[in-house]
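ingest -> validate -> predict -> emit
validate: passed (alphabet ok, no gaps, 270 aa)
predict: started
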Amino acid sequence: MIRAAVLGSPVAHSLSPLLHERAYEILGISASYQAILLDAEHAPEFLRSALLQEWSGFSLTMPLKESVFEKLDLISEIDPLAQRARSVNTLLVQDGKYRAQSTDLLAFKRLLSGRTLSRVAILGGGGTARAALVAIDSPASQIDILLRNPSRGADLEGIALASPVNIYALDHSLTEYDVVISTLPTAAVNTVAQSVEQSLNPQSFFFDVLYNPSPTPALQAARAKKSATLDGMDLLVEQALDQIALFSGMEFDYPEMRSALLKVGRSHLS
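emit:
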């Protein structure tokens, strides 16, 4: 039996339990997947005690994607790309310790595959932004990171090894980009809606990682311009596919599972 949970704060809004339980139902696996409120301060104690119990693994959301690196003694193996991004959203229990990786990173790679990535803007600098940065490193000719506080740009140095990276303020024009990825929380993404409306090129691809609420004003503005878009449900489902494979140890058809989970997720929000 699979016993897993999504950990974070806040976490009550998470649709991960809905998606995972539906996936395990489709796979015919007995499973329990819940949402557990957990902040960075109490995460080490919880994760340490969980190793003594019968957990299969955990999904991590904010603020734990980055803070988990403070307790690497609990982790026996970490994916090198997740290590470079300093962003982990998946912990798999294995031989009394955790195997850590970023399925966000894998999801970004698949969702952006085939897109023109000459110039890319990433809005925000947290764990999800770091995963996106590593995912597009090398394919992108230039990556600009737009931050509410540009002085935080120093924290992102060394993450991209191949693509040149520039740091700008959040009000920087969006005119010249092939792809714009917003990893901002709700309060901040609302502030860029005007910038999207005024400067986003209609030929640009706009990806907003928020799924609740959705569409955000920024995403609505991009759609009003007839720009191609993806939203947070696309990312939530895509990264969940790899977590489901890891927790279950099963192979399954990703396109079929993706379709089923997008249907249940979007139906829940409609």
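The longest strand covers residues 2-8.
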